[in-house]
Amino acid sequence: RQPKRLADYQPPSFLVSKTDLSFELDPTATRVSATLTFQRNGAGIMILDGQQLKLISLRLNGQMLTDKDYRLTEDSLEIVKPGNSGVLEIVTELNPDQNSALEGLYLAEGVYCTQCEAEGFRRITYYPDRPDVLAVFTTTIIADSSQLPFLLSNGNKVSETLLSDGRTAVKWHDPFPKPAYLFALVAGDFDCLTDAYVTASGRQVSLEFYVQKGALSRSHFAMAALKRAMHWDEQRFGLEYDLDRYMVVAVDFFNMGAMENKGLNVFNSKYVLADDSSATDQDYFNIESIIGHEYFHNWTGNRVTCRDWFQLSLKEGLTVFRDQEFSADMGSATLNRIEAVKLIRTAQFAEDASPMAHPIRPEQVLEMNNFYTVTVYDKGAEVIRMLQTILGKTGFNAGLKCYLDRHDGQAVTCDDFVQAMQDATGQDLTQFRRWYSQSGTPEVKVQEHYDATSARLTLKLHQHTPVTADQTIKQPLLMPMRIELLFSNAGSSMRQLLLLSNEEQEFQFDGIHEQPLIVWLEDFSAPVKLSTHYQPEQLLLIAGRATNGFARWDAMQQYWSLLISKAVTGGLLPQLPAELVSLFKQLLQQPLADIALTAELLALPDFDTLAEQYTEIPVDALLSCLAHLTQQLAEALAIELTACYQRFDSIAYHYNEQGVALRALKGRCLHYLAFTNEGEHWVNQHYRQADNMTDQLTALKAAQYAELATSNSLLEDFAKRYQHNVQVMDKYFSLVATTPNDAVFTHLDRLTQHSLFSWKNPNRVRAVFGAFSQRNAKQFHRADGRGYQLLAQIVTKLDPINPQLAARLLTPLLSWQRYDQQRQHLLAGLLKALAAQASLSNDVFEKVSKSLP
Ligand code: DPP
Ligand code: ZN
């Protein structure tokens, strides 16, 4: 198996200017006729990609080709003498019903659906399936419209014809040239919610949401979110929608969250369907942000796309950044930043430390699906954010405009993007480009020296990026460090942006008349691990005083990390310091104006965040420390927690910033109250009084974490109540999978027998086994290896069904070197056994083989 390398990129030898497709839909024998108008673009043979296709016929310029005119392999078709230009007609046959990988064209629950990114189009027809071949697509779908009333594809609908055999032919035309990965086809029966949007320049756009029958009322929020996103992109970046129609289809069988196909987004139903009784605040948040994300791709991804898949972050990092900015404007910017940083500090730092470490622009890929990662997406977004910090919002906006003007209609590289930023602002970004090629988490050490006689403050910074599995040589990066100097006179402070570029660098401030307390890395201005020399009291001061909300939360996180690491090193359980208790009392008695921030300040770091601070993760010690601290906080603050909980009357459910904040604060109190003597009472009451899904889940989770006796009966009640709503049942599945004791294994077994469970549905599998392996540290990381064994079995079972899903689930097993000897031994054994299996998919093979020495 040969990986592809970025360094080997060659422009395509042939381009396709026009792609005409015709689909005759049939569950087991769909016929696809593709007519490609091609031109030579350089030297080289004509090789088309194709997988799992049955070739029916092939014509070149009207002439039937015979087997001496072409060469067919497992995954390609070579045309021996194509000439310099011409028309190639390819007829293939496929079996959508058998397609459980959910790539290419598949049939699930009566709906035909495609997923072509990254390399799924080659499962539809033979084609130069690479993002730098852009063609104008015309698509005809032929089907029995009594069974499939909606036949959808990209662009504008050209015609609908009733054929003599009773079938219907619907023709679509997309005027914007696009790579094959943005192609989409959907056929099925849906309820359709329609609305309209008028763009800033007056273009009328019809908005259409296609959802499962009966779910119309659950699509209103997503529709409203789409309109907000369209408006926001006009306001913030001056970007308008460009077609007459914007369609979103929600399907339950989907590997990803959603897909930005031109004019026809396909969404995982999880990220469209919502109402107050079934969706949590988090669900609403996710829907708005993903609706925004896919919409924003229309410019950053579709109008300007990637030259090759190594450049994936060009569109994903940028679009995640855009959706984060959108979410920040729609709700609490501080809370958004906290959530984004948590993800970096958990999953992304873990990826950097794993055998799958890669730069945001990977250099070598066996299976592209393995590179839709937190590094490419979320660290990618952090890199874009740093550009904005360095260039300022105005400079950044100008850079984005230059990039889009310059490259509209093209397939380009990350370098092209940075060049546009540089040209628009005049800022030399040569060193900054290293963020694209260098993997790993930089570590920054800071030292402060204050000299009272000269009133001079000297800050000394040192950066170092440890080697990663993929790369041994690391260079210094250009990183923006936002800081604040706090002076003793409350309210007096000074904020600065430092640009660190050398391995070691000093910054001097004169006229500083007292030694300030320094808040480092406001807003997490660079995705690094920072080591400071704070005393615990200083961190509490920062938590109380820093101007930046994120920095206050971060100081609390550092405070706990410090306390816990001392305990872990000493082999003891941490004791609650008195000053912490009094700070928490104060917060509970007088929550800040920002209630949402208060709720975050009262939270302990999660297991994954703590874990990333250790080379060898002390699983058991961390889990005991967290449980112990929770118990201690509950005991020490029972009165204040109760008062705070009762102080805010529950208001009727509404998804808005204030409602989210209040539920979060009450939820945080309940989380601790569950550990008090009256835990059962509080949890039961919270559950019974809830008029919304957020509060119900908060109660269920609190009961489960505190291992209250009521937990099981509440869960049963919940399952009964929502047995007909599969999106909610996924939440139930996940809850059961996070049972913190031995019983979880029997439960998991039972869940896979549940009538709603299907190994072919990624949402179900993720709800059960994703939750178990990623959110049940206690059982997953059992020292006897039972959790690991189970996951390895599941991966083995899933690989032939859906390799993309199997490879994703496998991730937690890869980092075997991060654990103690016993766990290392167990994990390595399982990985070796996996590697020894015949016929592993490329997806699983790539990850397993990288993880073994
Ligand atoms: N699911 C992916 C995304 O929108 C596909 N590009 O980020
Ligand atoms: Zn995306």
From TrEMBL:
Top-level taxon of the source organism: Bacteria
**What would be an example GO MF term here?**
aminopeptidase activity
| Stretches assigned to the Peptidase M1 alanyl aminopeptidase Ig-like fold domain | 440-532
UniProt record similarity statement: Belongs to the peptidase M1 family.
Ranges for domain Peptidase M1 alanyl aminopeptidase C-terminal come to 537-852
Which principal EC class is assigned to this enzyme?
Answer: hydrolase
Q: Name one Pfam family in it.
A: Peptidase_M1
Q: Where is the Aminopeptidase N-like N-terminal domain?
A: 93-182
Q: What is its EC number?
A: 3.4.11.2
Q: What is this protein called?
A: Aminopeptidase N
Where does the record place the Peptidase M1 membrane alanine aminopeptidase domain?
221-435
User: What is the native source organism of this protein?
Assistant: Alishewanella longhuensis
Task: List the catalytic activities from the record.
Answer: Release of an N-terminal amino acid, Xaa-|-Yaa- from a peptide, amide or arylamide. Xaa is preferably Ala, but may be most amino acids including Pro (slow action). When a terminal hydrophobic residue is followed by a prolyl residue, the two may be released as an intact Xaa-Pro dipeptide
Keywords on this record? Answer: Aminopeptidase, Hydrolase, Metal-binding, Metalloprotease, Protease, Zinc
Q: Which cofactor does it need?
A: Zn(2+)
